[in-house]
Amino acid sequence: xxxxxxxxxxxxxxxxxxxxxxxxxxxxxxxxxxxxxxxxxxxxxxxxxxxxxxxxxxxxxxxxxxxxxxxxxxxxxxxxxxxxxxxxxxxxxxxxxxxxxxxxxxxxxxxxxxxxxxxxxxxxxxxxxxxxxxxxxxxxxxxxxxxxxxxxxxxxxxxxxxxxxxxxxxxxxxxxxxxxxxxxxxxxxxxxxxxxxxxxxxxxxxxxxxxxxxxxxxxxxxxxxxxxxxxxxxxxxxxxxxxxxxxxxxxxxxxxxxxxxxxxxxxxxxxxxxxxxxxxxxxxxxxxxxxxxxxxxxxxxxxxxxxxxxxxxxxxxxxxxxxxxxxxxxxxxxxxxxxxxxxxxxxxxxxxxxx
Length: 355
Ligand code: SF4
Description:
Layout: H1 3-20, H2 27-34, H3 41-56, E1 59-69, H4 98-110, E2 115-120, H5 127-143, E3 148-152, H6 158-167, E4 171-173, H7 180-186, H8 192-205, E5 208-210, E6 213-215, H9 221-233, E7 238-243, H10 261-274, E8 279-282, H11 286-289, H12 294-297, E9 303-305, H13 317-326, E10 330-331
Parallel strand pairs: 1-2, 1-9, 1-10, 2-3, 3-4, 4-5, 6-7, 7-8, 8-9
Helix pairs in contact: 1-3, 2-9, 2-10, 3-10, 4-5, 5-6, 6-8, 9-10
């Protein structure tokens, strides 16, 4: 191995050592990951995998989505097929009743998901929606006490968060989506601050906060780094990293060329270095943008959605299971922890040997 190759390998290895030692990756280091040259991509992934392995071993957490209320949202999020400005051809229906939601949660168990996400398209939940979803959560928990429930119902205040916590909701998702400086470009009906405040209400309630991003909405690399640092500051437990699906009929239809799959891998690695012990979920759009490189995404990421997204098709579950098995990874069983594996095995993963 040449001296140059040794020094690039040790550069990413040193970053892994540094974050495993408790240092925070800086904005410059995060930016460097996004800008890493092609020749160093595998070294970046190897170093990110060391960090992922330290906290999560080789487990992959599966999440399953239930679209419990579809397509009649008054907000104007430009990426979303369910917004009031979308003309996308999707199913539109009001809130499913609690029995129907609970029945659909059975599918999560069949698909080996350890978390079932109940999503409603809304600016914020009405009192009736909170009651119905709370009742559904109680029914699901009665049948499957170990199945984790994540709710995603829009903006939330402290009282609403407490209602969901009391019903048994384990986690609440509310994505920041992009950096504050870019937020006005993707939504005008609520603000970035509204979203940050909801994440705060969730955390105060004792529910595990989940908040992530959508990559590919015209943001700069610097903005991607800034939203990653913000999510670290907010101490969210789980970070879905979505890659924009430019859905026909939405304002962002056709606005983004395909994301370079190798850049998508750098983005996942960047999130792993910035938020080393948090769940990083390779989320919507992975099939389109990472394509055949999806398995490499599981070196930095430790979670995925299984089956379909809210209004878009995902990869067949059997393909996900096979991908995980062929990587030598394992699916986290129902009842596993929401956070890092408490007694993460010793790190047996070494840097690539010289060739
Ligand atoms: S608030 Fe949620 S459901 Fe409504 S338009 Fe925005 S992303 Fe879509």
